[in-house]
Amino acid sequence: GENVGLHLPTLSVQEGDNSIINCAYSNSASDYFIWYKQESGKGPQFIIDIRSNMDKRQGQRVTVLLNKTVKHLSLQIAATQPGDSAVYFCAERGNYGQNFVFGPGTRLSVLP
Amino acid sequence: GAVVSQHPSRVICKSGTSVKIECRSLDFQATTMFWYRQFPKQSLMLMATSNEGSKATYEQGVEKDKFLINHASLTLSTLTVTSAHPEDSSFYICSALRTGGDEKLFFGSGTQLSVL
Predict the structure, then answer these.
(1) In this predicted model, what pLDDT tens digit does every residue of A9-19 receive, in sequence order?
(2) Residue A6 to residue B112, Cβ atoms within 8 A
(3) What is the 3-state secondary structure (H, E, C) of chain B?
């Protein structure tokens, strides 16, 4: 089933610092991973993706790292800005079709 | 870039009425779309997978007759909440899978359903 939680983990960072958001995934056969940003009352916004044949991918101010050995995914945001404040979700696509399973989410708060 | 349009963004209805939510992929064809439900401060819960030209695949615990899904074209999937009740109040989100060389999953902006 999907991950459900009553309280989102929260990460607070100072404006200008780097942020690292972590995600543990469950299926060792997952082949595709995505990070999303969701602001209050809005749908998730695609940030960056990575396939299982890669261990690192960089975008604008964001980097995704994939460690298949320990089934861990991370999102690094450089020079965090107030506009980065949101809930971040990781998603994995497993070997059971094209369904994506979402992590519980992490709330990022950027302090002035 | 690719865009998924979801309408309406907010709907308030009386208990017992039906509500239809539309999800459109604007610049790509999507044979597969997904419908999610999200409660406050929680992650997305997959309700069903919508397949163009065939019946939707529902997740365990999701009532097929309650949440009707129609994917009549490669750019449109609809979710109808039939005989809505207050417990159906939630944030509903759709997504569309763009396949091909640059495969990506894009989301709609969500629909906040409030049933009085």
Answers:
(1) 899 999 999 99
(2) no
(3) CCCEEEECCEEEECCCCCEEEEEEECCCCCCEEEEEEECCCCCEEEEEEEECCCCCEECCCCCCCCEEEEEEECCEEEEEECCCCHHHCEEEEEEEEECCCCCEEEECCCEEEEEC
